[in-house]
Amino acid sequence: MTIAVSIENLEYVYPDGTRALDRVSLNISEGELVVILGPNGAGKSTLLLHLNGILTGGGTVRIFGKDIRDKKRSELVREVGIVFQNPDDQLFMPTIFDDVAFGPLNMNLSEDEVKERVRNALRDVNMEEFTDRCPHHLSFGEKKKASIATILSINPCIIALDEPTTNLDPMSRRELIKIIKKLRSGGKTIIIATHDIEAIADIADRIYILNKRIIASGTPKEILLDFELLKNANLEVPTITILFEVLSHLGYNPENPPLSLDEAINHLTKTIETEGGHIHLHIHEHSHEEIERVKKKYNHHL
Q1: Does this model's pTM top 0.85?
Q2: What is the CATH class of 3-223?
Q3: For the chain, percent helix, then strand, then coil, each to nearest 5?
Q4: Tell me, what's the pLDDT at 1?
């Protein structure tokens, strides 16, 4: 399998002396959706900014096997697109069309090809009717989608999203996750930097926990079902995980606990179908005591 991103011993110290990254090493394969999970101040944004040379620190960053220091800036931009946390940092033209066309125009494409790329990018984020709108008149969720479109129009192989679900209302958040799933199914290599565990629980192929250095890596189940790991990394435990731990003390103890609401619904539906329309729970003399222990365990989550 082709390695899309390879990082070895990456270090970065800001001018004020703050160490943001400490010997970070990781590999991401082409077509993977990898999540960089960590609390605020963990260095997630700093890491993403090294992928296309906006920042350069010690260590090595390779994109498709080639050190980014040996790549031209124009080459990097075509390979790695970064969607910033604040969409206002990405939208600066009079209209949405102009913003989404900015990248393709700088690639010396024909007028027809630029228009086609803009049309396709806006279609992919469900904003075909927004071409003539002023970016600053949009809702925050619409701005988020527009900022993704500015990257899609360049058509990079790798798309990195910095805290994509931050400050979104529930409907916008769901729509954004659908867009990310669609990009993934299209074969893009996707990197998401976030602390929003609920958003990525059922879409990630692998997760790295970052807190200036790599704390752990693994599959979503390996990472998100490890309470001590999440607690020590100052991260939330998925609500569904807590619910199913409570259910386990009531006699419902599945081999593979779900991580997301969708997984939970599918799991419970299958159980009901195979158990004659029922889910069997049992309260015994120690049930309340065990549930109280669960509540105490997750007291900073509940």
Answers
A1: yes
A2: alpha beta
A3: 40, 20, 40
A4: 79
